Automatic annotation (TrEMBL):
Keywords: Signal. SMART domains: PBPb. NCBIfam families: ectoine_ehuB (TIGR02995). This is Ectoine/hydroxyectoine ABC transporter substrate-binding protein EhuB. Residues 56-286 form the Solute-binding protein family 3/N-terminal domain.
Length: 300
């Protein structure tokens, strides 16, 4: 029996953890599995003091380039881990230890103390704000499409996808699913792939006309492609208004002192321009710098 031309795939992860990440996690052994008690002290938590005493902070990552991942040599990198190294060093914590997991397991893993902080470029939204507390965003982000060279269907936003009945793909758990459905793309018609590399492959092979992701991931993934290109970034329309997302570090709700100390250093880096210098090697530009706050994003 022939399969439908555009079917929904069910990969295991949202942002696939690289194979090297799994190897690194295994090598970390018992130290990665140990848990630092973080019972609320009644005064904003005492995790920062505990981390200073240990000299290491465990960060949850989800294997998405360029946000937080293990590279081909088994090293932790990405915009969020590199920023974590800078800020936690200034807070008196000298080492950053990765704990790779699936994207959907980041918040449960944080709240069950499998790691201390989420360092995965996680978008701040109202639902997540009910489960964790966020630092202020370290970047803002528009959407963009991966399309075939020359953009033959003229796809520039989600309305174009609907109007031209384009075969639409995006990543597992991506915010772009919600934006596409909100614009009128039937959810059952969306091709779900593990990550932006799989999305590029889907477009290059013709299985999809368009792959939607963040502006930074699309422009990086097509850099060496001879068959595909990234469209100009755009703001999706949500409830009639343009939506600009922001990504940030997440903390357990009891750990307000750690979150506030992190924010203090982040704001210094924003003001001095150091934040862009840290993020630039991962494809971030001046247009991704932001003054958005977690409070603003949680209220939307």
């Amino acid at each position: 029996m022939s399969s439908p031309p555009f079917k929904k795939e069910r990969p295991l992860t949202r942002r696939s953890v690289l194979a090297a990440g799994a190897a690194t996690a295994a090598a970390l052994g018992a130290s990665a599995c140990s848990r630092v008690p973080t019972e609320d002290s009644g005064n904003g938590g005492d995790l920062l003091e505990r981390l200073r005493a240990l000299g290491v902070v465990r960060v949850g990552i989800a294997g998405e380039i360029p946000f937080g991942y293990i590279d081909k040599d088994g090293n932790l990198t990405g915009e969020a881990p590199e920023l974590a190294r800078v800020i936690f060093k200034r807070l008196g914590v000298g080492s950053v230890q990765p704990v790779p997991t699936e994207f959907g397991s980041l918040i449960p893993g944080l709240n069950s103390q499998q790691f201390d902080v989420v360092a995965a470029g996680m978008y701040v939204n109202k639902e997540r704000c009910g489960q964790v507390i966020f630092a202020d965003p370290d970047y803002q982000m528009l959407d963009s499409f991966v399309v075939r060279k020359g953009n033959p269907m003229g796809l520039r936003d989600y309305r174009d996808v609907v109007g031209k009945k384009a075969k639409f793909a995006t990543g597992t758990g991506y915010a772009q699913i919600e934006y596409a459905v909100g614009a009128g793309v039937p959810e059952g018609d969306i091709l779900i792939v593990p990550d932006q590399v799989a999305g590029l492959n889907a477009v290059e092979s013709g299985r999809a006309d368009v792959f939607a992701g963040t502006a930074v991931t699309t422009r990086e993934v097509v850099r060496k492609s001879k068959k595909a290109e990234a469209t100009e970034p755009f703001a999706p329309i949500v409830d009639g208004e343009p939506r600009i997302d922001g990504g940030a570090f997440a903390f357990r709700p009891t750990e307000t002192r750690l979150r506030d100390a992190f924010n203090t250093e982040l704001h210094k880096m924003r003001k001095s321009g150091e934040l862009l210098r840290v993020l630039r090697p991962f494809g971030f530009t001046e247009s991704e710098m932001t003054d958005l706050t977690a409070k603003e994003l949680c209220a939307r």
